[in-house]
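=== RUN LOG ===
request id: a7f3
mode: sequence -> structure
chains: 1
length: 533
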Amino acid sequence: MKIILAEKVSPATLAVFKSEPDWQVLTHDQVPDLPAALANADGLVVRSAVQVDDKLLAFAPRLRVIGRAGVGVDNIDADAATRRGIVVMNTPGANAIAVAELTLGLMIALGRQIPKANATMHAGKWEKKSLQGVELRGKTLGILGLGRIGLEVARRARSFGMEIIGHDPFVSAAIARENQIRLVSVEELFRESDYLTLHVGLTPQTAGIINEASIATMKKGIRIINCARGELIVEEALAEALKSGQVGGAALDVFHKEPLKDSAFFGLENVILTPHIAGSTAEAQEAVGIQIALQVREYLKLGVVQNAVNMPSLSHEEYLELEPYIKMAQRLGSFVAQFPEGNIESIHIAYNGRIADSKTELIRNSAIEGVLGHSENVNRINAASVAMERGIRVHEDTKEAASGGAGNVVKLTLHTQNAEVTASATVLHGSSARLLSLDGIDIEAPLEGTLLTIHNQDVPGVIGRIGTILGEHRINVANFALGRSDRSHRVPQGTALAVVQIDGEVTDAVLKALRGVDAISQVRLVNLGEEVK
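=== RESULT ===
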């Protein structure tokens, strides 16, 4: 593996990669020409200075992962990376304590007018009477967003005797109770808070959530702290509310445009402005560096995707549980892709069992990878993007409840203009991928190695003829599975299916001999290999 650390990192971050004896690791001072260094690189780690755009990625044909030591990924073209099959990871939460501590510090600074006290003292003034403040004790703190940072803020605010309310549709009631947070609607949050702190990401729903209308619903004199994203606030509306006294004070660490050169907040005494320093502590910078190094290493060694911005993230435990199904889905896709006649128009994936409630995106993408892998360079990261570019519709809208039979089943259907083919598979004994059906015929066969699928009339003598032909060509049969249609399926009555796993090479002469048997209607050779990576 070759890793490029394009910006300065801590010695502890470097040590994570250096612990891999066979890995080549180049630091920023060893890379005078980044595009040239990326030509054979597997991983790239950056902070915020290096611009990783499509032009730069064109120099990195082998690159598999980009690690951002920090939260924001504005300097990385995630769409371009996705198209090229590259995972983009960041490190949310590694600086949670640093951000939480600054949030509490800003709350105290607002309530006790610390910046004004400091400025007047440096000016030689003693304005004790005008600097009477308010305590945090007994006040209601509203937290918008109860992720790692929001929860760290709540834990610290409790020690000040604050009542804590919060809004986050993606946090469970149990977590809220455990942290003594009363969950409320966003309207209640705005209406009841004495202090309001923002800890949500930027989405269409959260952009401009602090605006003229929402501010009007808040308590007069509310104090607002934002250490998340500048775009959460309509800055002109907040500035007017600060001037009118509707908002008693604000502490802002993030802004629409950074660095901040011209702002409606300049000159307002009831605003504290800091230059995006919430996560800028020595401890936090060390933590994000180590975390991104561990994430990149886990992905390159084991395929575990953590904190990806262009793919769903799985914990190590979640990945271990889903890994057999991810690999099985790729084999199933490769298997089914052998059968359709004509161009594929759509892919339909359905789940049965407990995996239906899991993060199935990697299973989906692996199935697509298997389907399209015969035609171009596609992997689990860019599979859905490649399908979209090729005009292939992907449907994943049927996640079926568990039923009898195999506990976890993936069913894959390929549609062409004139036909469709459907197959299903499962994983047995923790790692063995098994085919369960093909076009309505139930069958259990290994989903690995070299397979012959043979459709034939359900008449005597066919199995014997198949065995004889393979024996004559000195081909050993590793597994021979049989299935037959019945009236409940759409296949014609009297159709049978054999899936034969074989050792050795299948030549054109073997296929010609099998197809020459009168009762055999179709023979397909499928090579799935021994292992899917």
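=== NOTES ===
Confidence is low (pLDDT under 50) at residues 401-405.
The longest strand covers residues 344-352.
=== END ===
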